[in-house]
Task: inverse folding
């Protein structure tokens, strides 16, 4: 140690300095300068989540724009504009965690927005928790985020295990005897898809359905033919696939190529994989889970209806809003609502106000349970019908009728 | 596992389906593996960016299709484009590391692979891309055995490329120069072979083969900017199993690994599919080592 001090006196000193600082009691000052409230966000602008990162950022930006246009946020009778301080997390969790520290410690941001994806949210949530900074996130759906006892994390989207549970309900409702339904599940071996698997199989077992295939696709596998051959042999009544955009693309492609016949096929990420644009007729009859749809009848006073939001988004960014953008925009509305009710910039008061949220936005109803996940909004289920996504479940929101069973390939036009 | 074996036992026709589909995947690995075997054998470089060249081939085919050309034209165009990209990479980076330690060339090619993946991500976005060739597929025996036409094309192209490469290396002057350089670069230089040029051709040729493979991958499966690594690993494995400089071996190893992988996925479950192939590779290495040891003893 002595030797070390002689060799690197400044280095050792600064190390002590760093330790000293981390031991200091944490006090965070409001990042409210003049009449602007700054929210902090690290989103993936480069790397493998960059497409969805862009949707997330566009959603946030549109939310900020509409709130500022409507007069900003009123706290204690004073009007504040909203701004967002962005960083690029490069789609890597380690970088996301660093940036969360940086936003809180250097930029003195008091309120965080979530990044894109469960993995990155998982990396940033402990940091927010450590500094007691609220984080409203719109794109981290993994259930494992909500069993760690976090007090400052709030998610406005439905969690992963709910993604395809509605398919099980739907299958049970159209079948004469749900106990006779045989299910094949193909899920990528990553936390997100495995959460979905848990939800699907839990409900299936409850209803007495039989699971005949339970395959876990390795992440770097680019072919599904072994599983599909098994499906040909066992002829399940329902095939459930989840493996992000790659899984959806490969599934549709290879089911068509190998002429695999299943009466009902359900999956996630149909829209981000653009299965209609890429495969046309081969994508027909596919059921797809979605967080949100523009045809739903939710409303709020800033964006108007879901359709109004969709049109505004399309006008601003020249593409139709995927649900990732919609939920991100809604996150801003949650902050506005909570800050106004809190009447203060104190992080604890704002946290409590967020926890007490009970509101409707164009994206859906928002009400958090004690773990911070939104329990007021169901998932919707699309079906590809005549080259379009049509909502077929849950029954309350459904505008179209389910087409079932899917005819075999030699009878399809 | 026993259930799955029972399925195969009850419906033996599925064995054919598994075998054929596995071999069709293997054909793609063969194409990428030719390139790796060439560069490894001739230049003693383990090219970790192999998979990224495959990925680039896929994206070039996408551009070809966007320009309104037939997707199958993407195969030669991707190969030619990748030839030039390979040339550029050699002239700018690889030539600096060619006679150096293996570790340095590993680092350099790893750097290239990160660079190419990020560049593609910037240019095309991170979405998964695929091309529908509309060629459809053939099915036999009540759809129990099915063959996507594009995969069959890929299969025969892989064999044809292998044969062409073999003829090129055996018969043409450049091919002979490549083989001479691979045997002893210094001696080749003394005898008047421009080894720098030979290295350039070898590296570009390797990239071109990957380009053709990538073009087939985007038509038969899908690509995204970060899809390269599995292809690098598979071609590495094929080359190791086949043995360096053994082109017919690459074909047998590629097809065999593809089929073995598919059977493993079916019987053990897909989560063990890749693990099984690695296990197989270890066995092949042990077996080969024992055979070599026996020969060494005999020579002594």
Result:
């Amino acid at each position: 140690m002595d030797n070390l001090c002689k060799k690197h006196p400044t280095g050792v000193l600064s190390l002590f300095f760093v330790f000293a600082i981390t031991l200091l009691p944490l006090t965070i000052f409001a990042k409210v300068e003049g009449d602007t409230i700054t929210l902090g966000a690290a989103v993936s602008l480069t790397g493998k989540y960059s497409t969805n990162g862009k949707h997330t950022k566009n959603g946030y930006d549109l939310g900020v724009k509409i709130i500022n246009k409507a007069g900003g946020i009123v706290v204690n009778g004073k009007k504040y504009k909203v701004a967002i301080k962005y960083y690029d997390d490069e789609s890597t969790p380690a970088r996301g965690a660093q940036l969360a520290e940086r936003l809180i410690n250097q930029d003195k941001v008091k309120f965080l927005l979530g990044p894109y994806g469960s993995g990155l949210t998982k990396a940033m949530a402990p940091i927010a928790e450590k500094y007691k900074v609220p984080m409203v996130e719109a794109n981290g759906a993994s259930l494992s985020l909500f069993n760690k006892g976090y007090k400052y994390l709030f998610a406005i989207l439905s969690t992963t295990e709910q993604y395809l549970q509605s398919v099980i309900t739907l299958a049970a409702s159209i079948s004469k005897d749900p106990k006779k339904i045989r299910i094949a599940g193909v899920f990528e071996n990553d936390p997100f898809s495995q959460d979905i698997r848990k939800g699907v199989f839990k409900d299936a077992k409850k209803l007495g359905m039989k699971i005949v295939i339970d395959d876990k696709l390795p992440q770097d596998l680019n072919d599904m033919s072994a599983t599909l051959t098994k499906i040909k042999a066992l002829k399940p009544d329902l095939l459930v696939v989840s493996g992000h955009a790659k899984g959806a693309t490969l599934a549709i492609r290879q089911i068509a190529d190998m002429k695999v016949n299943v009466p009902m096929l359900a999956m996630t990420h149909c829209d981000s994989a653009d299965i209609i644009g890429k495969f046309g007729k081969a994508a027909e009859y596919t059921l797809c889970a979605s967080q949100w749809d523009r045809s739903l009848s939710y409303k709020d006073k800033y964006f108007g209806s879901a359709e109004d939001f969709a049109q505004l988004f399309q006008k601003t960014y020249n593409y139709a809003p995927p649900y990732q953008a919609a939920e991100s925009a809604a996150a801003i509305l949650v902050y506005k609502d909570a800050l106004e009710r809190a009447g203060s910039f104190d992080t604890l008061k704002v946290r409590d106000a967020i926890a007490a949220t009970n509101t409707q936005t164009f994206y859906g109803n928002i009400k958090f349970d004690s773990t911070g996940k939104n329990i007021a909004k169901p998932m919707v289920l699309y079906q590809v019908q005549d080259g379009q996504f049509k909502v077929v479940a849950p029954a309350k929101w459904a505008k179209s009728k389910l087409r079932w069973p899917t005819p075999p390939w030699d009878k399809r036009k | 596992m026993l259930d799955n074996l029972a399925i195969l036992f009850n419906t033996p026709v599925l064995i054919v389906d598994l075998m054929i589909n596995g071999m069709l995947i293997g054909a793609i690995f063969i194409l990428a593996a030719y390139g790796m075997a060439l560069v490894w054998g001739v230049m003693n470089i383990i090219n970790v960016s192999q998979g990224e060249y495959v990925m680039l081939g896929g994206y070039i085919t996408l551009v070809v299709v966007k320009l309104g050309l037939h997707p199958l034209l993407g195969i030669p165009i991707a190969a030619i484009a990748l030839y030039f990209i390979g040339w550029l990479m050699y002239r700018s980076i690889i030539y600096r590391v060619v006679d150096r330690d293996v570790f340095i060339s590993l680092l350099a090619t790893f750097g290239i692979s990160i660079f190419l993946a990020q560049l593609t991500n910037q240019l095309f976005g991170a979405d998964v891309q695929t091309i529908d060739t509309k060629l459809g597929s053939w099915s036999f025996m009540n759809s129990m055995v099915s063959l996507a036409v594009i995969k069959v094309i890929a299969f025969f192209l892989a064999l044809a490329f292998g044969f062409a490469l073999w003829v090129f290396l055996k018969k043409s002057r450049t091919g002979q120069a490549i083989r001479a350089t691979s045997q002893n670069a210094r001696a080749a230089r003394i005898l008047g072979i421009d080894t720098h040029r030979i290295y350039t051709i070898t590296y570009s040729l390797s990239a071109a083969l990957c380009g053709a493979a990538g073009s087939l991958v985007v038509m038969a499966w899908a690509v995204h900017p970060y899809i390269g690594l599995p292809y690098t690993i598979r071609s590495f494995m094929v080359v190791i199993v086949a043995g360096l400089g053994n082109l017919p071996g690459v074909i047998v190893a590629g097809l065999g690994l593809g089929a073995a992988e598919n059977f493993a996925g079916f019987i053990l479950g897909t989560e063990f599919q890749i693990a099984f192939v690695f296990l197989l590779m270890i066995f092949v290495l042990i077996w080969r080592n024992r055979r070599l040891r026996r020969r060494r003893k005999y020579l002594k």
